[in-house]
Design brief:
Length: 152
């Protein structure tokens, strides 16, 4: 009987521990292979950005292919950030923006930005050195950095 009580107590403690962890995640936390930059209303789901560059120099087309197979900490589903993802990084309130920027360490001036309307020859990239605007590059020849995002 004592072993059954101990087992039930251990299971309860484990469940309580897991539940507490899920409720305490917040924007800026390291989680599941990236840094949380957006949470939904439940506070349990949102978006991650990789905490480092995936490639320093890659074409847009190669970046799209890489995202299809990329695994970070065993997790798939990574993609190129869209324009609204970059806008989220830029629009974070003061101190939070500084915390995220310090953790993300953007080392390059330009990063590929996903666009469903990109032409067959050009695609956009974002300047992330504090001056967030789009610049067009050749998608099959230009080689710039790649950072990825994922829903969780």
């Amino acid at each position: 009987m004592k072993n059954i009580m101990t087992s039930h107590f251990t299971l309860f403690a484990l469940l309580l521990s897991c539940s507490s962890i899920a409720q305490t995640i917040k924007v800026g936390d390291r989680y599941a292979g990236g840094i949380i930059y957006r949470l939904d209303g439940s506070g349990k789901h949102g978006w991650l950005v990789s905490d480092q560059d995936i490639r320093d120099s890659i074409t847009y087309n190669a970046a799209l292919e890489l995202c299809d197979t990329l695994k970070i900490e065993g997790k798939k589903g990574w993609k190129m950030p869209a324009g609204n993802d970059w806008d989220t990084f830029n629009g974070m309130p003061g101190i939070l923006s500084l915390v995220i920027a310090k953790r993300l360490k953007f080392d390059h001036l330009y990063y590929w930005t996903y666009s469903a309307t990109a032409s067959s020859t050009s695609a956009n990239a974002r300047i992330v050195s504090g001056d967030y605007h789009s610049v067009a590059f050749y998608r099959d020849r230009s080689r710039i950095a790649l950072r990825v995002v994922r829903k969780f």
